[in-house]
Amino acid sequence: MSRVLLLYDDYTELTTIELNLKKVGFDVIGISNEFSLSQQLLSFNPEVVIACGGSSRVNSVSVGKKLKDTPRWTGKSLLIFHPGAKPVPEDLLKLRMDFALEHPVPFTQLLGVLAQMLEVSGEALKDRWNKAQMTEEDDSSVTFTSDGEEAGESVFVTGGNDDSLASEINDLERREIQKEIGAKNWNKELTEYEQRRKDKRPSITAIAKEVGFDPRKRLSKKESKKRLKSLKEEWSEKELDSQDKSRQEFTRALFKKSR
Q1: What is the reported pLDDT for 222?
Q2: Rounded Cα distance, 86 and 88, in Å
Q3: β-sheet with 48-52: strand ranges across
Q4: What would the mean pLDDT of 94-112 be, rounded to a whole number?
Q5: For the segment 123-149, what is each residue's pLDDT rounded down to a tens digit?
């Protein structure tokens, strides 16, 4: 499939679009800093460059100028501008820009523009995208009823609170566990796991109270030294020396046997 290079200053948007394009079948590299643009043009040699940004990391106008100054690259460029940040007419002549869009751009619209740029079927790309979404919906469900029989519709197995197994593991892990233990044992295993979690919680809480430290908080450097000092007061120096000598003797004996 065609190679696409993405330059976005918004990292979340960058990763989302990169992932979606890969699902459709594109070979994609995403970067959030135009500093490495020249290197990627040389090594990756993308057929399409898509730039969207108005910051110092990625600026659509700056990317367009850099592409204009790279005559060896023969691909096409799509520049996306935020509202109110469109280039002035004088700058348009300095940019390499085959297509321009205004942010935000729906993903289906982006697929349509890519189809025009690459001269491929836009309907085929949208069909792939729809199939990818349908596959995700099917994969995110568990097709077993409470009695272990295969269900006519996909149903989610969820727990009643935050301690439930369903809130601890994702759908993929859940399906793998189901394969191992069998669908009929699923509810039994789920109940037993939740009960073990509930049984452990009082003991963990009691230990935290006994130690006098909330595990959700961090100790300061000063407090750490103070607690370490108090622990050392309970140590026996003679016992520690004896243990060190025993370890040294054991190591010597071990090396003698290996010779």
Answers
A1: 79
A2: 7
A3: 27-31, 3-8, 48-52, 76-81, 99-102
A4: 89
A5: 888 888 888 887 765 554 444 444 444
Q: Which residue has the higher pLDDT, 181 or 233?
A: 233
pLDDT tier for residue 122 given thresholds of 50, 70 and 90: confident
pLDDT at 91: 76
105: tokens are 């751009």
Give the per-residue SS3 of the chain: CCEEEEEECCHHHHHHHHHHHHHHCCEEEEECCHHHHHHHHHHCCCCEEEEECECCCCEHHHHHHHHHCCCCCCCEEEEEECCCCCCCHHHHCCCCCCEEEECCCCHHHHHHHHHHHHCCCHHHHHHHHHHHHHHHHHHCCEEECCCCCEEEEEECCCCCCCCCHHHHCCHHHHHHHHHHHCHHHHHHHHHHHHHHHHHHHHHHHHHHHHHCCCCCCCCCHHHHHHHHHHHHCCCCHHHHHHHHHHHHHHHHHHHHHHC
Residue 54 to residue 15: CA distance in whole angstroms: 18
- Cα dist from 241 to 230, 233, 237, 247, 255, whole Å: 19, 15, 6, 10, 21
Q: Of all residues in the chain, what percent carry a pLDDT higher than 90?
A: 19
pLDDT band for position 19 (50/70/90)? very high
Predicted TM-score (pTM) of this structure: 0.53
Residues pairing with 79 in the sheet: 51, 100
Instruction: Name the token pair of 163.
Output: 């301690």
Closest by CA to 35, choosing from 55, 57, 52, is: 57
